[in-house]
Structure to design on (855 residues):
């Protein structure tokens, strides 16, 4: 019986990234759907839960993706709303790669480090990766701040994290490299999670801050978010700081992504979300 | 050479149900297309008939699905319109699972019973499943009626059945559980084919009607169409009547669906429509 | 590791033809995307280049298709624009089957013939197949003309060929069978590449022209472009001229299409466009 992954994407096109990774995770057939919302997902869930017998259903799973983590969260909720009794299949949420990227980045940069009490700043942290990274660092005990160009967006993200994960994160407005370098002035951990091609920090700015122990950048398209690092950095020492680039921790991100997808089919009913994906990342880091 | 099923769906998203069942029927690759109409189907048919040699074409087939049986009928006609000489592949029509659900339900409830001359009432019978069930029961010799909340829709369905299958079915208006229980007052066979989550009969109503021998309910989402039955009922005796629930005869429905898809690839040119699917259901029941 | 082909189609539905041929070329999984433009292709390219390690990426490739060769050209350019360093995968352009059809037609009709200095007329040659056939014949040294019903479209195609392939082709206005038979009055080679179901020449017209040595017709839907030939013609002698029909050289077209797709996965970085596809066709003819 084939392992089928129903890939529900909230964007107009299903993510090619997610489909490729699913195949590399051992899925036999991916069924990608685009433009999926809580309003039209019922038919896909029924296709997952009504087509195979109770035991065979372990070979069917659902993946929720797309560029918006907010839309993904809502869709995951809608999928589970259509489950009843044992009419359900394992499901994973990784909109925009947010959960796996955040999990891999945090697992890599904090590996062997006790983050409790340390100050961690997530630069341009209002996107899905940034929010999740903030949540993971906070859950591990760090004092976390995230920055945004806009006060309103910073606040909204902090509210979201409070509400969804029950954690407190400080929101900082930082619209240029100067204000961002001030935001990291006493930080030990810096994680840049900005948009592709936007430089968030000059090289000189972070290199001079003595408190910084480790930096990571989730950006895989040049120019990078943190100038003076490289996307291939794998714990490379630069100006005395441990640096991680998107490609550098991307190997772990892909490994985590594949491992979680593979585990959707191990016979247990699973919901892979931020916390369980982060646990997997720490296990594999 | 891979067995390819070109899944033409008339809805904005291709049915996940149909794709999963196709894989379970042994198809190697399903090629799902959404939003297919007689006006845009030509390219898909050409992709089916012009890509493989005369002998290899036995490994290509077309499946027509979607929520509207009417749109499916029109699409099936359009597909066949683009066939010429031996440039054609086997094709199956099962919009909304209508043909396989009706076939399995009727095959199950009438198994071992001579339905000739018996009165069969299809409740909320204007949808694809209801219409097909009515046609199958009538072809086997039952005196068939279907109910609808609206006179016009009841009549339209009866006209359709007369025109397409050459059978006479009585149309009854029944907008509430009372009028529906009057409609089944002298029936031996009751088949509920209403919308998901709409209760069509109270438990007390059908249990008191002595003529009723067997009831089936195509609804797989609670609340069921026939209160007092369960969707897992597999010929279960309730108040002296044999009861079939959607999950109960769903095993046969899936078996029929898979068997028909598998047979599309057996080397013969086949058109699976209501009659041939019902024949397969009787064979497998 | 599975061979994955990311099929980027510029039309509202991905070409079933291209998907089927890809599977027959040995691709393990085709990932079809519809409605792809330079503006939305980035995510698909990233899915191709960021998901697998440098060595494993040889098992990922991109195919650009759709009904418009112009849109396909622009999309191919956009795909390559997102490549950097060794973050790239092999790619093939065959919008509307234009490259493979033109390549196979020209390779078949000119097989064993020295076309240098000969006059070749591509009838209704402003579409993708016609333009490419004109380019291939011109590159081999023929004096090429293409016809169109409209002066403007003929000129636009000649300009395109001059700009893209650096070749000179004569544009002729020919709106009816009479003017088209005048256009081929002193030709040795005639290739009809008109729309499906449009007759471009009467049988009597071309049969009486003594200079003509070979005719090919890319039309696979009756009525054919060149009356008096048949789509199954495989170098058949008719009125002393060698005739090729679309099905006749379609075997080679499919062979070329499959061979190019297969070669996308041979470990070299490849860009299959008109010239390289034509080279493959000559090799296989």
């Amino acid at each position: 019986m084939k392992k089928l992954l129903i890939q529900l994407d909230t964007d107009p096109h299903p993510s090619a990234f997610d489909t490729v990774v699913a195949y590399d995770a051992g899925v036999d057939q991916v069924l990608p759907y685009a433009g999926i919302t809580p309003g039209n997902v019922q038919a896909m869930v029924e296709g997952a839960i009504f087509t195979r017998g109770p035991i065979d259903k372990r070979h069917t799973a659902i993946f929720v993706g797309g560029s918006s983590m907010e839309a993904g969260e809502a869709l995951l909720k809608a999928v589970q709303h259509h489950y009843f009794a044992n009419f359900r299949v394992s499901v994973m949420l990784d909109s925009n790669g947010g959960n796996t990227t955040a999990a891999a980045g945090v697992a890599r940069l904090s590996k062997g480090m006790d983050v409790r009490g340390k100050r961690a700043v997530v630069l341009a942290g209002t996107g899905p990766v940034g929010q999740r990274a903030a949540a993971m660092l906070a859950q591990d005990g760090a004092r976390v701040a995230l920055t945004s160009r806009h006060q309103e967006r910073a606040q909204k993200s902090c509210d979201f994290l409070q509400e969804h994960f029950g954690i407190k994160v400080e929101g900082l407005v930082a619209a240029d490299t100067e204000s961002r370098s001030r935001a990291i002035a006493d930080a030990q951990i810096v994680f840049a999670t900005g948009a592709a091609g936007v430089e968030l920090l000059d090289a000189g700015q972070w290199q001079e801050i003595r408190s910084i122990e480790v930096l990571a950048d989730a950006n895989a398209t040049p120019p990078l978010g943190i100038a003076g690092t490289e996307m291939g950095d794998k714990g490379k020492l630069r100006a005395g700081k441990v640096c991680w680039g998107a490609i550098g921790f991307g190997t772990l991100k892909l490994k985590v992504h594949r491992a979680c997808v593979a585990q959707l089919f191990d016979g247990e009913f699973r919901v892979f979300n931020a916390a369980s994906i982060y646990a997997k990342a720490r296990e594999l880091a």
Observations:
- The two ends of chain A are 32 Å apart (CA to CA).
- Chain A touches chain C at residues 11-21, 23-24, 29-30, 32, 220, 222, 250, 254 (CB under 8 Å).
- The longest helix of chain A spans residues 246-263.
